[in-house]
Design goal:
single chain; Rubrerythrin, domain 2; 2 domains; globular; binds fe (ii) ion
Length: about 325
């Protein structure tokens, strides 16, 4: 069995208020502290089948243009998700299972591109707009009891478990892969950057904050008690941990490397893109109303985040 990172964006960042501010408030943290960001999902090649954990961004998602006030930046395209998968040597037809950690479009973007795959997703996530119209969904109802300190799990294949971990979204889940005595935790967005796990902070993005807190507590307890390789989607630490088979040690953090950001090198189009869910606000589709003129309490129609989570595109 082997896990591979499918890398599709690089050189992004997550500011400290975004990555840490979910409970204490964004004003408690420094917007000039920007942790490195990237986007990658993961692939599990069991030797018998090819299983994807999440499926990237939709192909037409624009890049963002950021400035000093931006809370988060998903980064520059390396290539489209499907091209990144092809570069690893896999064809869409080979994929038999997709394990979806949660609905957000940077995890569910290409769900429709795999003709032979079944999409496993927490049954509580089924109402999500991103999943409508799919006829290959397998609702996960967690029929296999506890997985260590997590109360509910479902076994997917030998050594691969789907674990209920609500909070970031209502149906958020973690995938654990047991391999060579290590526990690989593909966790979706329990945290955006590893520093948030070390520092025990929730990000500002959640559907259910108490559930997100309980989940983060369980993840930290699990990491303390099991040799865990922590595989993030939004941080290069995810694939660095994978490549090094680095076991997460909460008492001995890997030294932080901050993002180096080159602001203002791109022209903005007037469009804005939600850094959480990828929704694109195009004034042409809203009677020409510029994004800047929307009321302060305007919310992303897809993920209900505020205007401050949008970047210029
Ligand atoms: Fe997410």
């Amino acid at each position: 069995m082997e896990i591979k990172a499918v890398k599709f964006r690089k050189n992004g960042f997550y500011s400290q208020p975004f990555a840490f501010g979910g409970e204490e408030g964004t004003d408690k943290f420094d917007i000039n502290v920007r942790y490195r960001g990237s986007l990658q999902n993961y692939l599990i090649d069991t030797g018998k089948e090819v299983i994807l954990v999440d499926t990237g961004l939709p192909a037409d998602t624009p890049e963002e243009v950021v400035d000093e006030t931006s809370l988060a930046f998903t980064g520059e395209n390396i290539k489209g998700y499907m091209d990144a998968l092809a570069d690893l040597g896999y064809k869409p037809e080979q994929v038999t299972k997709i394990l979806l950690t949660h609905r957000h479009s940077d995890h569910s973007g290409e769900l429709r591109s795999f003709p032979n795959a079944k999409v496993y997703v927490n049954a509580e996530e089924l109402g999500a707009a991103e999943l409508q119209g799919l006829d290959n969904l397998v609702p996960v109802t967690f029929t296999d009891g506890a997985y260590y300190n997590f109360p509910e799990c479902q076994r997917i294949a030998d050594g691969i478990y789907f674990i209920k971990a609500k909070g970031h979204t209502v149906g958020n889940s973690i995938i654990v892969v047991e391999m060579d005595g290590l526990f690989y935790l593909i966790h979706g967005d329990i945290t955006y950057v590893d520093e948030a796990l070390y520092e025990n902070k929730l990000s500002v993005v959640y559907d259910d904050r108490p559930a997100a807190r309980e989940t983060l507590d369980r993840v930290r307890e699990f990491v303390r008690n099991h040799p865990t390789v922590y595989l993030s989607t939004h941080s290069p630490q995810g694939y660095e941990n994978l490549e090094a088979k680095r076991v997460m040690d909460l008492d001995n953090p890997v030294p932080t490397m901050l993002a180096e950001v080159d602001f203002g090198k791109q022209e903005a189009t007037g469009k804005y893109v939600c850094s959480i869910c990828g929704y694109v606000y195009d004034p042409a589709e809203h009677d020409g109303v510029p994004f800047e003129d929307l009321p302060d309490d305007w919310k992303c129609p897809r993920c209900k985040q505020g205007k401050d989570k949008f970047n210029k595109a």
